[in-house]
Amino acid sequence: MTTEELRLNVEKALDEIRPFLQSDGGDISLLSIEDNKVVKVQLEGACVGCSVNQMTLKSGVEMTIKKYAPQIEQVINVEA
Questions:
Q1: Calpha distance 40→57 (Å, rounded)
Q2: Less crowded by CB within 10 Å, the N or C end of the chain?
Q3: Where are the alpha helices (DSSP H) in the chain?
Q4: Sign of torsion over alpha carbons 74, 40, 11, 16
Q5: How many whole angstroms separate alpha carbon 37 and alpha carbon 44?
Q6: Contact 49, 12 (CB under 8 A)
Q7: 74-77: strand order across its sheet
């Protein structure tokens, strides 16, 4: 998978999960993909102060991204 294909697949994954985040007043942005293994995102809106955002990141976002891009090893939230 090329770097561009990987980016598109990660964006597709985020598009799949975004409506759930938005329904709770939050959102997510892709910041970067490093070494084709680590995805850096930024949780936004209500997700920033949410007590379960790490659970959302691991069981929601990371799982969905790995479905589209199995080579991704980790998803990290970069706080603003």
A1: 11
A2: C
A3: 3-23, 53-55, 63-68
A4: positive
A5: 23
A6: no
A7: 26-34, 38-45, 74-77
Token pair 């995102």 is found at 41
**How many whole angstroms separate alpha carbon 66 and alpha carbon 80?**
24
Instruction: Report how far Cα 8 is from the mean position of its chain's Cα atoms.
Output: 12
- Residue type at 75 in one-letter notation: V
pTM of the model: 0.91
Of 16-25, 45-54, 62-71, least confident by mean pLDDT is 45-54
Give SS3 for 56. Answer: helix
Q: How far apart are CA 39 and CA 34, in angstroms?
A: 6
